[in-house]
Write a structure and sequence with these properties.
It is a single chain. By secondary structure, this protein is α+β, with helices and mostly antiparallel strands. Strands 1-2-5-4-3 form a five-stranded mixed sheet, with helices on both faces. Strands 6-9 form a two-stranded antiparallel ribbon. A two-stranded antiparallel sheet has the order 7-8. The chain is globular, with a radius of gyration of 15 Å. The two termini are 17 Å apart. The C terminus is likely disordered.
């Protein structure tokens, strides 16, 4: 039996849901996190996506990851290990929270940069719900929006195109 993947038309509420979760997480990790980032296709305005918010909590060094795991467990998150992606820690949301994917990554590592580059390339992906197949595409200029744990925001425009594919 094949699992069905639902792709929805872009919803402006996705950025609001991210911001709600970022604000909820920030007081618990502000002294550890470099940033809390909205990643994946729900972070790209106008892009059709699986309607599940993905977030990275970016820490400055590997040593901070153990503290992050402990703090998130104290807030009801269940640590799921790296789920096969070395250098990225995954967390299951508490039962009372809306469905989302939360990851811990170290700044500048391959898992962190993979998430950033995936977002940069989303500008060329299909923007309509219901398109069944997405192949790697050459991404055009896009912006990545990053919000630090303290709430300040910044934007980056890529200087070159990147190749990307949708996350499974």
């Amino acid at each position: 039996m094949t699992d069905r993947i639902v792709v929805s038309a872009y919803e402006p509420q996705w950025s609001e849901r991210f911001e709600d979760r970022r604000q909820w997480l920030a007081p618990h990790v502000a002294d550890l996190a470099v940033s809390i980032e909205h990643i994946g296709s729900t972070a790209v305005p106008g892009c059709a996506a699986k309607p599940i918010i993905d977030l990275d909590i970016v820490v400055p060094e590997e040593a901070a990851m153990l503290v992050l795991i402990s703090r998130l467990a104290g807030q009801g998150y269940q640590h799921e290990g790296d789920l096969g992606i070395q250098g990225r820690e995954a967390f299951r949301a508490p039962p009372a929270a809306f469905e989302h994917h939360l990851y811990g990554v170290v700044a500048g590592t391959k898992p962190h940069l993979d998430h950033v580059l995936l977002g940069l390339g989303h500008g060329a992906l299909p923007r309509r719900a219901g398109e069944a197949s997405v192949s790697p595409a050459e991404g055009g200029p896009a912006r990545t929006y990053t919000q630090s744990a303290s709430g300040s925001a910044s934007t980056r425009s890529p200087s070159r195109r990147c190749r990307t594919a949708c996350e499974p």
